[in-house]
Design brief:
CATH topology of the largest domain: Rossmann fold
Mean pLDDT: 93
Largest sheet: 14 strands, mixed
Low-confidence stretches: 1-10
Strand content: 25-35%
Number of strands: 27
CATH class of the largest domain: Alpha Beta
Number of domains: 4
Shape: globular
């Protein structure tokens, strides 16, 4: 029997919600952004009309239902107009993080086999010069100011021929119909194109609203483009900051604070790296951040010290919340800052980072590396790989059968499960503890070492900013090496710091096999959130240092 949620057949997925908000709150600002030095705003009614004109213009010029369309447009009203229009048409936008570099971009786009490309002139120049998807792209549209390019149509000019008052009547889209292709960051392996279906995107919007208590009428400051889309779908005002979205850690704290105050922002979504800089900035200026209802931190495991420092610089009524998830599914688990701080001692003893309980609608199991959801889950407090299933979880990858075989499993009831690639455990209170990536697990002659769980034991040292555990040699015989990034108080006395860390390692049976320590400069981190440590690169540095 088909579940009730699959019978809805959303007419246009999350784009239908924009239509609803345009009817219920037509004069509320949907998006505001700084253009040519002036703040410009679009109401929900205006944005919905712009989406309709965009959809008409694209359809009249060759875009059809099911046509995968690369979208390379920066956050703002044009990003929202194009994304909602493609969703309304049923033409899945292909979204790739531009920060992953030229070679990574090209590989992702070629793998997606898109038929259309919508982008700013700079993106089109990259496409032309580097030959991205040259053999498959048949329709090309430019957005925004810039030079005219051959064989490319200007979307703004095409929209001028569309009447303002003509709504776009899109097709009835199936629950499991492809809505978008979202590429993973590639920070812990090759980037994969997660296929998001319309029902999944709606489930994610519902889950985020329920999980964090997000309400229509709030004002959002998203520093990650996809959350700007979700906030508008929820009826929130999206305030677009001036920043390089591929380098969130470099965002100007004064600019963000000004936006929060000027526009009465209630919700801030940011990576831990950005929030860390914001917290340090507030501390240096001895300021307190007032007015926010909540701060949502995602992209990397929470750090107790950073959460504690930030909580002292915000209003006592401001919630700091950390959802756990991935490109393939978000949110999966959820925890508040009070819950994080309560678990600090257990984290420092080597249990891992508590990520809370699974959110409603998500079923989570933990299995041995070679098992799957038809097998019996591991017992409480036993580390294994995290599998999830639920309406907010992607069902497959695009043109990637190997990844589907490795990460997807259909159980005996027909449900599709996703293997996250993370190591975790479930405690007696049903809370989940994140311990690191499965691919980065250290396999020594005496047993397994989970990166994040081990690293947090050493990060109690006052001169340590963060650590990264890497393994050298053949799996099963790997030598564990702890790389150390000192904090700003470090005076370059490497010998003393290493001696302290060696003493720490001998106090805990989980770490007494670690005898090699190296002090490095700033760690290489992921592109999307500037927070996930790229341990594979550090392993090469450690190998050279110890050779």
């Amino acid at each position: 029997m088909t579940p009730d949620h699959e019978q809805r057949n959303p007419e246009a997925g999350v784009s239908r919600r924009l239509r609803q908000h345009a009817f219920e709150r037509p004069q509320q600002v949907a998006v505001r952004e700084l253009i040519s030095g002036r703040w410009q705003e679009r109401t929900f009614k205006e944005l919905d009309a712009l989406v309709d004109r965009t959809a008409h213009a694209l359809v009249r010029n060759g875009i059809t239902r099911g046509m995968r369309t690369v979208l390379m447009v920066p956050p703002g009203r044009e990003f929202l107009a194009c994304t909602f229009a493609l969703l309304r048409i049923g033409a899945p936008p292909v979204m790739v993080d531009p920060g992953m570099g030229i070679s990574g971009l090209g590989e992702c786009l070629n793998n997606a086999k898109p038929e259309a490309f919508i982008g700013i002139p700079k993106a089109h120049l990259g496409r032309i010069l580097l030959g991205w998807s040259r053999s498959t792209i048949r329709h090309r549209f430019t957005v925004g100011p810039g030079p005219r390019l051959p064989f490319t149509k200007n979307l703004e000019q095409l929209r001028t021929s569309v009447e303002d008052s003509v709504p776009f009547s899109g097709p009835v889209l199936g629950y499991h119909e492809l809505a978008a292709v979202l590429f993973t960051s590639g920070s812990t392996g090759p980037a994969k194109g997660a296929m998001a279906h319309h029902g999944q995107l709606e489930a994610q919007v519902d889950a985020l609203a329920q999980c964090h208590g997000l309400q229509a009428g709030e004002v959002d400051l998203p520093t990650f483009p996809l959350f700007g889309l979700f906030s508008v779908a929820l009826g929130m005002t999206s305030t677009v900051p001036q920043m390089d979205f591929t380098r969130p850690a470099d965002a100007n704290p004064d600019h963000l604070l000004e936006l929060i105050k000027t526009f009465s922002v209630t919700n801030l979504f940011a990576s831990p790296a950005l929030l860390g800089n914001l917290s340090t900035h507030l501390e240096k200026k001895d300021m307190k951040l007032e007015g926010l209802t909540r701060i949502i931190s995602a992209g990397a495991p929470a750090r107790h010290g950073a959460i504690a420092a930030l909580s002292k610089r915000v209003s006592k009524n401001t919630k700091i919340e950390t959802p756990y998830g991935a490109t393939e599914g978000l949110p999966l688990c959820h925890i508040s800052h009070t819950g994080i701080l309560e678990t600090e001692q257990e984290t420092q003893s080597g249990k891992g980072v508590c990520i809370g309980k699974p959110v409603p609608g998500i079923e989570l199991q933990i299995h041995s590396p070679n098992d799957h959801p038809n097998c019996h889950p591991l017992q409480e407090d036993t580390a294994g790989e995290i599998w999830v299933t639920g309406p907010a979880v992607s069902l497959e990858y695009l043109f990637d059968e190997l990844s589907n075989l490795q990460h997807k499993f259909t159980d005996e009831t027909g449900r599709i499960w996703h293997k996250t690639g993370d190591i975790g455990l479930r405690d007696s209170n049903s809370k989940i503890w994140f311990r690191g990536r499965a691919s980065q697990r250290i396999q020594t002659a005496t047993g397994l070492l989970d990166t994040v769980a081990i690293e947090r034991i050493f990060e109690v040292h006052p001169l340590v900013y963060r650590t990264a555990l890497v393994g050298l040699g053949t799996k099963g015989q790997q030598i564990p090496v702890l790389c150390v990034e000192p904090n700003s108080d470090f005076k370059d006395d490497k010998k003393t710091l290493i001696s302290d860390l060696q003493a720490l390692s001998q106090k805990n049976p989980l770490t007494d096999s670690i005898t090699h320590f190296i002090i490095t400069g700033p760690f290489p981190v992921d592109i999307r959130h500037n927070a996930k440590i790229q341990r594979e690169k550090l392993a090469l540095i450690a190998g050279k240092a110890l050779s």
